[in-house]
Amino acid sequence: MANEENKLEELTNSEIPIPKKKKGLNMKVLIIGLPLFIVQLVAVYFITATFLLNKSHGSENGAQNEVGDSTGVATDTVKKPEVELGRFIYSVEDIIVNPAQTDGKRILLATVGFDLNSEEQKTDLKNKEVLVKDIIISTLSSKTLPQLNDSEYKDTLKIEISKKVMGYIPKLKLNNIYFSKYIIQ
Prior knowledge:
Blueprint: H1 2-13, H2 27-60, E1 65-68, E2 74-78, E3 88-97, E4 108-116, H3 119-127, H4 129-141, H5 145-149, H6 153-168, E5 174-184
């Protein structure tokens, strides 16, 4: 028994190094994991760009019919007639409004262009210029400065103006609305 106690004391008194767990980043993770992650990102980008985007572009072009000759090779692509954008534009120049909640201390200067399908629609819109200006002024003046300063909100503003104009003039078909001048002072 004395031998066992001596051995126990020797083991407890001896300096046995106790391995400490390292804290921090494992180098194997960096050396193997990071390049593997980068390879996966490149693979996902390649797959997305090659397959998924081509399918979405193919569905947009699905309305086109290919006409082939006797050899079966496509020689011409027939497209549906598209509306020519920018041909008939009616412009309402220099609308000045006070945005909402500014107490008249700030102004917005805007020029709005309406892209139409025909010259007759342009004439109709010109004949109702006062109505169109009122719609634009009331719409712009009801918006706050943070809304008007937000570049993404301009698309919402265009949609709102077009709905109101087409609500008052139902036979009007707008292709698009453009802001050729949009200055907040």
